[in-house]
Design brief:
Blueprint: H1 2-10, E1 15-23, E2 33-36, E3 41-44, E4 50-55, E5 58-65, E6 72-78, E7 87-91, E8 101-102, E9 110-111, E10 119-123, H2 124-130, H3 135-139, E11 145-150, E12 154-159, E13 162-163, E14 167-171, E15 174-175, E16 194-201, H4 205-208, E17 215-221, E18 233-243, E19 248-259, E20 262-273, E21 276-278, E22 281-283, E23 288-300, E24 306-319, E25 334-350, E26 353-371, E27 377-396, E28 399-413, E29 422-435, E30 442-457, E31 468-483, E32 491-502, H5 506-510, E33 512-515, E34 520-523, E35 531-543, E36 547-571, E37 574-598, E38 601-614, E39 619-620, E40 628-635, E41 639-646, E42 662-675, E43 678-687, E44 711-718
Parallel strand pairs: 1-7, 14-17, 34-37
Antiparallel strand pairs: 1-4, 2-3, 2-5, 5-6, 8-9, 10-16, 11-12, 12-13, 14-15, 16-17, 18-19, 18-44, 19-20, 20-23, 21-22, 23-24, 24-25, 25-26, 26-27, 27-28, 28-29, 29-30, 30-31, 31-32, 32-35, 33-34, 35-36, 36-37, 37-38, 38-39, 38-40, 40-41, 41-42, 42-43, 43-44
Length: 722
């Protein structure tokens, strides 16, 4: 009965699409990856440059990549009952590396050059060299992205000055829920085995709802292997890295295979590190240990239907530096973070439409351990967040309709009251459309979304919270245009306007207690409204064979912006700070330039700046990243040198602590090697090569400690090397 049901649901007629990839002189190009990004399927060209793949009737986006060539994007239509003509795809040589397609900007495949919002991605060698225990530290390699850091092990991404609950985290398009109001609870994502990380800079609530105020980070795992009608197989791979600064060691392994239409993978990595070292000495109680892994299985049918199940574990113990701890003190506070996720995704063609569904169950825990008044370790707090979500999407060409629902429950316990027990139930519906007139000069995108949300908080006498329900509704909208004066000429101009929103966090609503990490007593406000942002984004992109340029400028005006401000009150010898709302604005820009100088040598540079103002208090917004400029050179993925310069913050909020400007030099290198009869990749990087003494403005330790000094990182990996 089950095979019959699966055949009804997934097996539809398919057509074989064939093609050939050649260079500018017409010579075939082998080992080119041709990916159907809508389906997550890929094939590799043979020695004759040919490829073939079975696809059901519909519209698809092909991303064509090979190192040493500029990537290409082709949109194809497979008609029912009609043979598809062979595709001829021409690749031009280029030493520049960029991801040609984004799946985050519109919830289906879109050429990055056609997105009115800036879309960047980290993949391949760049991702492998950057990967670490903290996702926020990894994505700092992208323009407009910074991190609020707690040592090297915990970080919160900052996009264009927005952070915390104003930046939405996704894993393969599904929301990741955590305690975003806590600076010591970073995204629970392991980066060792992912395919790429996409970042959208700008408001995206029309697609993802609350929290996508400043941008979206989407971590996309590797596609499962496919036997493609051939014999069954199994293969293994590993990664081993070590770092000198904190004596970090990180061994990882993965095993994957395929048989028939089923593919599977199991991957795991352990990380252990001792105390950090700065040019001024060792920082006590800054080590960590973590063990992360996932297991996945999936089925694909020639019709284009697919079903996959994935189980993810992320967990670790992260020690926290104390401001006034005596030197050499053993022990100290630590955070225990844990995250388990069950993800089920499926899609199938439905006539000329494509139906896609994503379901996720997530359990996220955050525990702080510290010594009590008797010197005994105890739980300061123990928070558990359990979330279930379901997204159902219907695609047809450039049109997407979607509905989403989220159910969530928070349990809080421990010695310190943090937030009350509470439940959230939300639902939304949205529509998004992309038009590309026949001339190829214009691409227009527009969408609208409606959200409804109900928060039910339990009574908590220690926080002064009475049992209550809060209902809220919000709408989001987006309209963008990309103009290409000469189709295929490489120059495009973009404009995007949008409205985004976010709901207040439990902490902002109900806080009533000491925040020891900030040495203050904090009070929430249960009457606060959702934040709303109206944004405008302008962009200029130019891409040629030997150079590319990207300029972006943006302005966001925010209503009911939530911020914290000091009062004249004192409770338990701590100054009292109150959460409030006001009008605010954020504006800034980014510039990126890359050029192929010749013989594989690439020069790159970028500048980014942001400025924010609380319009009610007439003062700068707190903790905004200062001006950043970078210049670097890379040679054929063999050697890189980068200089990262940071200005001192010139507009300080009363809560900010000033730090001087500084510049860091980073070196890197890599090579493909063979060891023990296996092809391997060796990567070496030297961070802060000159052991510069500095304090990052976004470091939570800046008031009493320098940032880490020189760090030599060596990484050896085998299997699945791009």
């Amino acid at each position: 009965m089950l095979p019959l049901l699966l055949s009804v649901l997934f097996v539809l007629p398919a057509d074989t699409v064939t093609g050939r990839v050649v260079d500018a002189s017409g010579q075939p190009v082998a080992q080119v990856i041709v990916e159907v990004t809508d389906l997550g399927r890929s094939v590799t060209t043979g020695a004759d440059g040919a490829f073939r793949i079975a696809l059901a009737p519909g519209r698809y986006t092909l991303a064509v990549r090979r190192q040493g060539f500029a990537p290409a994007v082709r949109e194809i239509t497979v008609a029912s009952g009609q043979p598809s003509g062979a595709l001829d795809i021409v690749l031009t040589p280029s030493a520049l590396r960029l991801e040609p397609v984004t799946v985050t900007a519109t919830r289906q495949a879109l050429a990055s050059a056609s997105s009115p919002l800036p879309a960047d991605a980290l993949a391949g060698n760049d991702l492998r060299r950057a990967q670490g225990v903290s996702l926020a530290h990894v994505v700092e390699a992208l323009p407009g992205v910074r991190a609020i850091t707690t040592g090297s092990q915990i970080g919160k991404p900052v996009i264009r000055g927005f952070s915390g609950a104003r930046v939405l985290m996704l894993e393969n398009g599904s929301r990741l829920e955590d305690y975003s109001w806590s600076d010591e609870d970073g995204p629970s994502v392991e980066t060792a085995f992912v395919r790429r990380i996409e970042v959208i800079r700008g408001p995206a609530s029309v697609l993802y709802g609350s929290d996508a105020l400043g941008g979206v980070i989407n971590v996309i795992p590797e596609a499962l292997p496919d036997a493609a009608g051939g014999p069954a197989f199994m293969r293994t791979g590993f990664t081993l890295s070590a770092a000198s600064n904190n004596v970090e060691i990180a061994p990882g392994a993965q095993v994957e295979g395929a048989r028939g239409n089923m593919g599977w993978r199991v991957a795991a990595i352990g990380r252990h590190a001792s105390n950090l070292h700065t040019p001024a000495g060792e920082l006590d109680n800054t080590g960590y240990g973590a063990f992360n892994g996932d297991a996945a299985a999936g089925w694909r049918w020639p019709s284009g239907s697919a079903l996959s199940v994935r189980v993810v574990h992320y967990g670790g113990e992260f020690k926290l530096l104390e401001a006034n701890a005596p030197p050499g003190e053993t022990g100290g506070p630590e955070r225990k973070a844990g995250d388990e996720r069950l993800q089920i995704t499926g899609q199938r063609p439905w006539g000329h439409w494509r139906l896609e569904a994503k379901a996720q169950l997530q359990r996220h825990s955050l525990i702080e351990i510290a010594d009590d008044t008797t010197g005994t370790e105890s739980e300061q707090f123990n928070l558990m967040l359990q979330t279930g979500s379901l997204d159902v999407l219907l695609h047809h060409g450039g049109t997407t309709f979607g509905i989403t629902t989220i159910g969530q429950h928070n349990d809080a316990s421990g010695r310190e009251p943090i937030v009350p027990d509470a439940s959230v139930l939300s639902g939304a519906a949205f529509a998004f459309e992309r038009w590309s007139p026949g001339s190829g000069r214009w691409t227009l995108l527009a969408g609208v979304r409606a959200d409804a949300r109900r928060l039910s908080a339990d009574r908590d006498d220690s926080l002064g919270v009475v049992a209550q329900d809060r209902n809220s509704q919000a709408w989001s909208g987006n309209a963008g245009i990309v103009f290409t004066p000469v189709p295929g000429g490489g120059l495009s101009l973009s404009l995007n306007v949008g409205r985004a929103w976010r709901a207040p966090t439990l902490f902002e609503l109900f806080a009533n207690g000491p925040h020891i990490g900030e040495a203050r007593y904090e009070l929430g406000d249960s009457t606060m409204k959702p934040e709303a942002s109206r944004g405008v984004d302008l962009g200029v992109r130019w891409s040629g064979r030997r150079a590319r340029l990207e300029l972006a400028a943006y302005h966001n005006r925010m209503s009911d912006y939530i911020y914290i401000t000091p009062t004249v009150l004192v409770i338990d010898s701590l100054p009292v700070y109150q959460y409030r709302q006001a009008e605010a604005e954020m504006l800034g820009g980014e510039a990126v330039l890359e050029a192929d100088i010749g013989r594989g040598l690439v020069a790159r540079s970028r500048v980014e700046v942001v400025r924010g103002t609380n319009l009610a208090a007439h003062e700068p917004l707190p903790l905004l990243p200062p001006l950043r400029a970078m210049v670097g050179f890379g040679w054929r993925d063999r050697f890189t040198v980068d200089v990262d310069a940071y200005d001192r913050p010139r507009r300080l909020n009363p809560l900010d602590i000033a730090t001087p400007g500084y510049a860091l030099v980073h070196l890197g290198g890599g090579a493909d090697v063979r060891l023990f009869g296996r092809a391997m990749r060796l990567d070496v990087s030297l961070r802060n090569a000159f052991n510069q003494r500095y304090r990052s403005f976004l470091s939570r330790y800046k008031a009493f400690a320098f940032d880490p000094g020189r760090n030599l990182i060596v990484r050896l990996s085998s299997g699945f090397v791009d």
